[in-house]
Design goal:
This protein is of the alpha/beta class. The chain has helices at residues 49-55, 105-122, 137-150, 201-211, 228-234, 249-262, 299-316, 330-340, and strands at residues 38-43, 62-63, 68-72, 87-94, 127-130, 161-167, 174-179, 218-222, 241-246, 268-270, 283-289, 317-327, 343-350, 359-365. S-adenosylmethionine binds at residues 195, 197-199, 222-223, 225-226, 228-229, 245-248, 251, 272-274, 289, 291-292, 296.
């Protein structure tokens, strides 16, 4: 087994990404006396809205049929560091009956200014349009006008500044959404290696937030795969110790590559999580994304793995320790919990992602 790594000294800013300045609101009028607020739309995996609202300083996000909206008067750079959202878009509506109206002299000027501001925040190097009928003559004209107005190349496939056009929510006009960052926020910069069955990083962030972060935690991530849970935790702040294992050498190599990209020195070992040989009560937080029985493992092997996993984690966890489990094998997991009858368990969230609807549970010893 590798030696659990301890948290390096706090980053010099000492800032948790979620604790930056700035206030959020769903009521623009609150900010009449401050700098003008802009409207944003947040794309969040269904099930993680509460975590996202907490990350946005607890403000209520206004939900309409299209998404989660909020007004923000502060530095938009802060929004580019959100970790619970898939993407964040600045939104502006134009009182035009159809997209052709955006080609009017005034509208085009306003649209170009609006997109310029977003590109200044995100440093985008190209743009693309996303709209129904994006091959139409109007859209092609718009792309040409924006190409010269923004001085950015139009790249219909890979353009970094994603510009979405759609009928205005609850209004007669059209609205434009511009993604603040060149890549989705959920596509983490540290992810150089991907694996089938890799967890969406926003789910890993949410699981850690709800399982609790404590500076004194000794943390174990069995079955680490590509390292999503470990790396997200390492980026969230101090802990006492952190160690990960996976039975697959490819997974260990993948985690190591991602750790290097994240500039975190945490040892990972190719070890069977059920046979670590570690002493009892070694950890205060064990967090695991178990094989779901499709991309990784199968239902038959999970019937054997799940009860053994829960038994061994019961041994490894401290008296008041927390075990956080993410799984899509809901029936199996809940059956084993009932049969073993040695855990207090509660559901943290259920999230919808890529056609799956896994749950995260938090367990403590009875
Ligand atoms: C769902 S994947 C984890 C994915 C990971 N959360 C990520 O984001 O990449 C489950 C992992 O469990 C590992 N695994 C299965 N049985 C194991 C065992 N007995 N000990 C350690 N790892 C195991 C598999 O190799 C696989 O990498």
């Amino acid at each position: 087994m590798p030696r659990p790594s301890r948290t390096p000294a706090r980053p010099s800013s000492g800032k948790n990404p979620s604790s930056g300045g700035g206030k959020f609101s769903h009521r623009p009028s609150d900010y009449r006396t401050r700098q003008p607020a802009h409207e944003y739309e947040l794309e969040v995996l269904p099930g993680l809205e509460e975590v996202a609202a907490t990350e946005l300083s607890g403000a209520k996000l206004a939900r309409d049929q299209r998404g989660l909206r909020f007004w923000y008067p502060g530095d938009p750079e802060r929004l580019t560091r959100l970790r619970s959202a898939v993407a964040v878009y600045r939104v502006k509506a134009w009182d035009v009956p159809r997209p052709r109206g955006l080609l009017g002299h005034q509208q085009l000027g306003e649209l170009t200014d609006f997109l310029h501001q977003v590109a200044e925040v995100g440093g985008h190097r190209s743009f693309r349009l996303s709209a129904a009928g994006k091959e139409s003559g109007v859209m092609q004209r718009l792309a040409e006008e924006l190409q010269s107005g923004l001085e950015l190349p139009h790249d219909p496939q890979e353009g970094e500044l994603l510009i979405r056009l759609r009928p205005e929510t609850g209004g007669p006009g059209w609205e434009v959404l511009a993604r603040l960052t060149p890549r989705p926020l959920s596509a983490r910069a540290w992810r150089e290696c991907n694996m089938g069955g890799g967890l969406n990083a926003t789910i890993a962030y949410a699981a850690h937030k709800l399982a609790g972060q404590r500076d004194e935690d000794r943390i174990f991530n069995p079955m680490c795969g590509s390292g999503t849970l470990m790396i997200e935790r390492a980026l969230m702040g101090p802990y006492d110790a952190l160690v990960g294992v996976d039975i697959s050498p490819d997974a260990v190599a993948c985690t190591q590559q991602n750790l290097r990209a994240a500039r975190r020195q945490i040892e990972v070992a190719q070890v069977d999580a059920l046979e670590t040989g570690l002493p009892a009560r070694s950890f205060d937080l064990i967090i695991a994304d178990l094989p779901w029985g499709d991309a990784i493992g199968n239902h038959r092997s999970n019937n054997i793995l799940y009860p053994r996993f829960l038994e061994e984690m019961h041994r490894l966890i401290s008296k008041h320790g927390r075990l956080c489990v993410i799984t899509h094998e809901l029936r199996l997991f809940e059956t084993v919990l009932r049969e073993q009858d040695r855990w207090n368990a509660r559901e943290l969230f259920q999230v919808y992602s890529g056609g799956h609807h896994p749950k995260a549970y938090l367990l403590g010893k009875k």
